[in-house]
Each structure stands twice: as C-alpha cells, then as structure tokens.
Design brief:
Its EC number is 6.1.1.15. This protein is an alpha+beta fold. Helices cover 28% and strands 28% of the residues. The chain has two domains: 11-308, Bira Bifunctional Protein, Domain 2 (BirA Bifunctional Protein, domain 2), CATH 3.30.930; 326-406, 3-Layer(aba) Sandwich (Rossmann fold), CATH 3.40.50.
Length: 407
C-alpha cells in the first residue's frame, strides 16, 4: 500500500477531549475516527488491526469445536420479557418504539436470542452440546462513554454460547474456552493478563471470570497473588493487600489497575428454565439444559493494546496484529522498485512514497507503530536499513535477507 493513497493521513495534534492514550494515538495515527461520544469508525488502517484481532479469536474459538454464525441486532420486546430483562436491564439497553407502536431494543447481548434459536431445534441429548458464536455490534447505554474505544455505546463483540446436558459438561467446556481465550490473548500480544473471579452483573447471580490486562491506565482494580493464578475483582474481594494468598498460601496479595478484555459466564439453567427450553434424555425424560456465555470485545482489545504498548513517539503494535508487516520509507529513487519486489515476495508493506521531509516520514512511521521499519536511501545503496519499532539498533540487509526475516 502506498501511503500517499491511504485514507486518512496522520494528525500532528490529538483531539482536545482525548484523555486516554488510545484515544490520542489511534486518532492521530489515522486508525479511528469519532462520530460522537462512544461511537467510532474503524478507518482502513484501524480496520486492518481489528481484522487480525478477530481472526486470531476466530481461530481459537474454532479449536473448541464452536461454529460461527450471525444473529440480528434488532430485538422485539417480547423475547426480553421472557427472562424479565426488558425491565431489569433497562438502564443498559436502548429501547424504542417503531411507527406502529411496537417496542424493540438494540442488542446489548444475545442470550435470549440464542435460547430462542436453540428451542426451535433442540430435541434430544444427541443434539448436545451446542457451541455457537458470532462477531457483531453491541449497543449499550454507557453513561461514561470515554477512554477512546475502550468504553463505547456501540462496539464490536465476539459472543460464544454453549448449551449442555448437565452442569459437569458445561464446566468442562467452560474451562476449555478459558484456555482458548488465554491462547488468543497471548497470540494477540498481551503479556500481563489475569483470569479474575468477578460478579455476574446483569447476566447471572453466579461468580464469573474476567480476563484483565494489567495497565496503569485501567479503570478496574483487581487483587492477585504474586505466586499463583488466584485473582479477584474489587467487587468481590474481601481481604487486605499484602496478606497471604487464600489459594496457595505462599504468595502475597497485590493490587493493580487493569482493563477487562474478555469474560466468561456459567449461566446454568436460569435462561433455559425461563424460556422453556428442554431436551429428552436417554430415558425419554424431559430435562433442562445448562447454558454458558463467553465474550471478547475485539474493538476494546485494540484500544487496550495501545494503552499497554506505546512510547512517547506513538504506538508499538505486536507483530501478530500490526496493520502491515513492514513500513518502507523511501528517500531515494529506487525505493519504488524495492516496494514492488517486497510485494511480489509476499510482504504486506506500507510504502511512504510522499514528497515530504525525511523527518516527517520517520515521525509518522513511529506514530503508526508497524513493527519493522525499512529505509531506502543514498546511504543504504543496494541494501535496506532494518530497524525494529521497539529498538534503536539498525542493520543493513539485502532485499532477500529482509524478506526472509519478515516471512
């Protein structure tokens, strides 16, 4: 991709209202644009990152045997009344009437919609377990729509739902999904992430689990053991910082700020009971299936990555989700030939072909944050200057050597 043709270009200044790092850098880098408070456009550069994040998540969901589909975003009041959440979740939901007076809501989650689909098709234990997921937009009446793409009124969510013959089978899959989530987050590029016990909020009265990324800018507070995997959200924590870990007894409890990027909910029979979902067991008796849900916010993941991976020059994208493999800066006439050869070799490269100063090109390169910078200039001759975004070290490589390192 030639940078001269990319829409839009970088901005020198962050928006005045941008308080969070991800808001400042994603807007300045040309990754996102704000329509209004809590509503964001993922521009071409940002959409590339978002697509890579969603693909990693998709691959890990598929390893659990889950099947992808797509559900509606417009929901009738009647289906939410079946569980009572039309009233109990009123503060979160966008509810309205159409021109004929019929009441609807925009999706803030899809438990009821999945249960409705399951009851149309579920007959016997042979149909279970069911494991289905989708990526879709969610709408939530967020009273504090700030912190860039971390807290929106409209955002992308991956929902996975599973239905099981009993609680044992539900938890067997529940922990399998936990492992898949951890793999996905590690592949995306998070290093300090904690599986944290939490309350269920409007989803369930059981304790659930959140995936919290340690971040100084995080709005959540968690308590965790410095020796084992024990961790709890502030909502349910009942203890003191520095005391012995209640799980292993060896470590000490530490406190940290964090950002939630995913959650898993063991919902039990609450939804299936209220919505009349049954199956027939091996003895021909009607039984109530167990239900669980699992969420990751890909757009929130993008913002969190920026919060934990940046410096004073700009974003530092992990290789796995960077918008391009390399950022090529041309300072001499043969740069176009190098760009063409890189593309032919299969390298996904952003080529800054503009007639601007070298300083402006380098500054934009650092701001955009692609992991590898390649420079073609009179000084490099028939070679390329190779530099990693998170390092000051440079080396001269042949085109073939650079391609081999990139692919």
């Amino acid at each position: 991709m030639k940078y001269s043709q990319l829409f839009p270009k970088t901005q020198r200044e962050a928006p005045k209202e941008a308080e969070s790092i991800n808001h400042q850098l994603l807007v300045r880098g040309g990754f996102v644009g704000q329509l209004m408070s809590g509503s964001w456009t993922f521009l071409p550069l940002g959409f590339r990152v978002l697509q890579k994040v969603t693909q990693i998540i998709r691959e890990e969901m598929n390893t659990t045997g889950a099947q992808e589909m797509l559900m509606p975003l417009l929901h009738p009041k009647e289906i939410w009344n079946e569980t009572g959440r039309w009233d109990t979740a009123r503060e979160v939901m966008y509810q309205f009437k159409d021109t004929r007076g019929r009441e609807f809501a925009l999706s803030f989650t899809h438990e009821e919609i999945v249960m409705d689909e399951v009851r149309k098709h579920l007959r016997s234990y042979k149909d279970l377990p069911i494991k289905i997921y989708h990526f879709s937009t969610k709408f939530r009446n967020e009273p504090r729509a700030k912190s860039g793409v971390l807290r929106g009124r409209e955002f992308l969510m991956k929902d996975l739902y599973s239905v099981h013959v009993d609680e044992e089978d539900m938890y067997r899959y529940y922990w399998r999904v936990k492992d898949a989530y951890m793999r996905a987050f590690k592949r995306i590029g998070f290093e300090d992430i904690k599986l944290t016990e939490a309350s269920g909020g409007v989803f369930t009265d059981k304790h659930t689990h959140e995936f919290q990324v340690l971040a100084e800018s995080g709005e959540d507070t968690i308590y965790y053991c410095n020796e084992c995997d024990w961790s709890q959200n502030k909502e349910i924590f009942d203890g003191l910082v520095g005391q012995d870990c209640p799980e292993c007894g060896k470590g000490k409890i530490w406190q940290a700020h964090s950002i939630e990027v995913g959650n898993i909910f063991p919902l039990g029979t609450r939804y299936s009971e209220k919505m009349g979902v049954f199956y027939t067991d091996e003895q021909g008796e009607r039984k109530i299936p167990y239900f669980a849900s699992y969420g990751i916010g890909p757009s929130r993941v993008v913002g969190t990555l920026v919060e934990v991976s940046h410096d004073d020059k700009g974003i530092v994208w992990p290789k796995s989700v960077a918008p391009f493999d390399a950022h090529l800066i041309g300072l001499s006439g043969n740069a176009l030939e190098v760009y063409t050869k890189l593309k032919e070799a299969g390298v996904d490269v952003l080529f800054d072909d503009r007639e601007v100063s070298a300083g402006e090109k380098f500054a934009d390169c650092d701001l955009i944050g692609i992991p590898v910078r390649l420079v073609v200039s009179e000084k490099t001759g028939d070679r390329l200057e190779w530099k990693l975004r998170n390092s000051e070290d440079k080396e001269l490589l042949t085109l073939e050597q650079a391609v081999n390192k990139l692919l």
